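User: New here, any thoughts?
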Amino acid sequence: MTNKKMEINFLTILGVILVAFGTILTIIGQNKSAKRDKAELTNIIKNRNEKIDNLVISNNGLHKKISIYQKDLEIKELEIRELKKNLDSKEPRLVLFDADTKCYIDKNGLYHLIICFGAQFPLILDDVFISIEFNNPVLEVKDTVTGNIFVATGRLNHKFLNNNKNYLYSNSQLTAKNYIILDIISEKKVKILKLETKP
C-alpha cells in the first residue's frame, strides 16, 4: 500500500513536472514566435514607410513641376491676351523705328536719310504699304530688307509722285521679325512731312 501511494505520488509529481516543463516550453516558444512575428511586422512596416516616403517625395516633385508648368502657362496666357489686345487695337502694325533713323552726307555731297520699318508685333504682315511725303524732292530710294522678307509673287513695287516729293512703297508680304530699310537720297536735306503705313 505504501509503495502504491509512493508510486502515485511519484507519478503525480512527475506529471506536475512534465506539465510545468511543457508550460515553460510553450511560453518560450510563444515568446520566440512573437519576437519573430514582431521582427517581420517591423520589416513590413519599415518597407511600407519607405515606399510612402518615396511616394511623398515623388508627389512633392510632381507638385513642383505642376507649379512651374502653371506659372509658364499663366505667362503664355498673358502674352496671348496682350497680343490679342494689340491685334484688336486700331494702331498700325507696320511702324517706323525711330532709333534706327540715321542721316549722313556721302562723298558726292548727297544727303542720305535711312529709315527702318518693321512689324509692331512678331507677325506676318500682308499687303505692306508705305507712303512718305518729303519737304524736298528725292533723287532715289534704295530699299533693302533683312532676311528672306518677301514672297515670290507680287514683289516690290515703288514709285515717286508730285515731282519726287512723294514716295509710295508696297509689297505683298513682310515676314515676322524682318525689317524694311529705306535709304532716301537727295541733293538737299529732306524731312518727312507725312507718313502713312498699312496695315
